[in-house]
Write a structure and sequence with these properties.
The chain is of the alpha/beta class and 403 residues long. It is built from 14 helices and 15 strands. It folds into 2 domains: 122 residues, Rossmann fold (3-Layer(aba) Sandwich); 221 residues, Dihydrodipicolinate Reductase, domain 2. It is globular, with a radius of gyration of 21 Å. The two termini are 28 Å apart. The structure holds nicotinamide-adenine-dinucleotide. The site of nicotinamide-adenine-dinucleotide (NAD) has 21 residues, from helix 1.
């Protein structure tokens, strides 16, 4: 495997963790990043001798990987996915698959032409609570699903982080409707086992960006350090120093960028309604400046409701999968998989196992995600962005690409 994009995700989840857990089945043969210092820093952090490159084609030609892992910033996934396919490699891509419909169509066409395979690494499916929801739905615990309520709460730490970095610009992330919500749209597509048809959305920037009286470029040089609740000291995190601070001279990427910069053009509050082929509706919201973090999800069926809640902070928490049958009783579902160690509550480890050890094995929950899943989850976010930009007009997925 070769990795392109050696920031946090490439370096840790698909670098260090793969070396520690899967060296008997996979070898990392090359590392590539646009930042020549960061790719060398990553090589050291991962602890391997694989050669480093800033030229992607050169890496593929010299190292001949079977698979390319794409962990660059979102808007650049498409170019590497397509080029890797053209050069005869299978591809694994971090979410989102792509950030606009032209990229999506180009990837669909390229995969067809190449005969190679794309995997999209949706770790959110691997959360033990989300898996349980899928199992309940497959067992028809609440009958046919009529609607889904999905509320994403991002707090003043995790939420704010998207406004510090490259995600803050639509041209990099496609907005958080693509970057972040593609995880959530994928979960709903997977749970419902149906195809999204049309999308209507509202979104605004009401907290970060221009909505403050003071601002700077980044925290280290900020004259408002004392009064800003969002001040972060990036130098306290050794890994961030090695991956980002020490590499700033190459590309000016400040890991501690100011959340009040006036160039921020993504939304910090979003509401989306998605209509599915099977008639179900999704009501989705995401807010990124909240006092606590988590998700509140409810799935409403003909014969009951599933609540999947994991949120809290400031001294309270709610974490349970609850099944309430219509005209029956409500119970907490107890037989969840045991919790695992590792990133994202063990979800990363479950995903890595499936990819590196279980690729030929059974998959009763349908956890494997390919091109179609990657495309549809991105397309809901892309359609939502178009809808907002067109005064909340409804956008049909079929008008964006030919699947
Ligand atoms: N599934 C998850 O839970 C999860 C979590 C974190 C990140 N991610 C995904 O991983 C990807 C990387 O995120 P990150 O947090 O590691 O970001 P990051 O900023 O730490 O790393 C991105 C890297 O891409 C490099 N890059 C930018 N443009 C490039 C180009 N044109 N060519 C080659 N390299 C380029 C940057 O130099 C940087 O090293 C994103 O797509 C993100 O959505 C997924």
């Amino acid at each position: 495997m070769a990795i392109v994009g050696t920031g946090n995700r490439g370096c840790l989840t698909w670098g260090q963790e793969v070396v520690v857990g899967y060296s008997d089945v996979v070898e990392i043969v090359g590392l590539c990043d646009i930042n020549r210092k960061r790719v060398v820093a990553a090589q050291k952090l991962i602890g391997i001798n694989a050669p480093t490159f800033v030229d992607f084609d050169r890496m593929i030609k010299e190292t001949r990987p079977d698979t390319v892992m794409v962990t660059t910033i979102d808007a650049t996934h498409a170019r590497y996915i397509i080029r890797a396919l053209e050069l005869g490699c299978d591809v694994m891509s971090e979410k989102p698959l792509c950030t606009d419909e032209q990229q999506c169509q180009a990837i669909l066409d390229a995969e067809k032409k190449s005969g190679k395979k794309i995997t999209v690494t949706f770790n959110a499916r691997h959360d033990r609570m989300e898996k349980k929801v899928k199992e309940l739905l497959l067992g028809k615990a609440i009958g046919d699903v009529i609607s889904v309520d999905f509320h994403e709460y991002l707090d003043t730490s995790h939420g704010a982080d998207y406004f510090r970095r490259w995600h803050r610009l639509k041209e990099n992330s496609g907005t958080l409707l693509v970057h972040k919500a593609s995880h959530h749209f994928d979960l709903v597509n997977w749970w419902l086992n149906s195809t999204p048809v049309e999308v209507t959305a509202f979104g605004d920037l009401k907290f970060y960006g221009r909505n403050n009286s003071f601002r700077s470029t980044h925290c280290r040089v900020c004259p408002f350090k004392q009064q800003c609740k969002f001040y972060m000291d990036v130098t306290k995190n050794e890994q961030y120093v090695r991956l980002y601070v020490d590499c700033e001279s190459e590309d000016g990427y400040m890991r501690d960028g100011c959340v009040w910069r006036e160039d921020i053009n993504i939304y910090d509050n979003m509401s989306v309604v998605v209509k599915y082929e099977n008639g179900a509706h999704l009501n989705y919201t995401a807010n990124t400046y909240l006092p606590y973090e988590g998700q509140a999800i409810s799935i409403n069926g003909h014969q009951g409701r599933i609540d999947c809640n994991e949120f809290g902070g400031g001294g309270f928490s709610n974490k349970e999968v609850r099944l309430t049958r219509s005209f029956g009783k409500s119970e907490v579902v107890k037989d969840l998989e045991p919790e695992r160690v590792g990133g994202h509550g063990g979800a990363d480890a479950s995903l890595q196992d499936l990819i590196f050890r279980g690729s030929q094995g059974p998959d009763p929950l349908g956890l494997r995600a390919g091109l179609r899943d990657g495309a549809l989850s991105s397309l809901i976010g892309i359609a939502a962005r178009h809808s907002i930009e067109r005064g909340s007009q409804t956008v049909k997925i079929n008008d964006l690409v030919k699947l």
